[in-house]
Amino acid sequence: MGCPRKDKDPFAIFCLSTKGSSEIPEGTVMLIVLNDHAVVESELREGRLVCPHCNGELRPWGHARRRVLRTATNNEELRPRRARCSNCHMTSVLLADICLCRRVDEVAVIGRALLEKAAGAGHRTIAIRLGRPKETVRGWLRRFSSRVELIQEHFRLWAFALDPRLETITPQGSGFADTLEVIGLATRAASLLFGPRPVWSWASAMTGGALLSNTSSPFPTPR
Asked: Fewest beta carbons within 10 Å, which of 91, 181, 189, 197?
């Protein structure tokens, strides 16, 4: 896994921004962190977040550029925290787990679209329900479908690693639905072990924000 914290929660995970990222320069290393400013600030000041470059301690280092996140009900302006390693002096951007890399929409909105698709809705219907352009929704669904086997296997590993009592995963009738089922199992197990967090926030954390990324970089895996 990419970048564990020094306490029991292993889900401060990094991804590398690529060309086209929403308002984030190419090559920026982004850490997916808990969507709680006070907690993240405390961890930074106490040196409990680990540098993805050298495993040194990250410390506060200003903020990244402002960005707009489209939630289910409105647009929110975010200004992600920036951190600097006390050892190698490289910087990273801390992206809240309600986000995905390179996506302007909140991960929960994207997750709802995936669930609607599994229930039989088409991209036009989903777009109307979510108030999003049909091209945007179609892009989410196509990207998820194109990686469905990879995503399913990734979350299957997490599900069995986090829940030793899990023996089998019941098929849901399609690869798409099977993948959503295993995401549910893995994220539920994570909440039981590490404390409650929304399902799709866990999904962002477990993939280092790269659930729908267009890169070939591997997801962070259990270790």
From this structure: 91
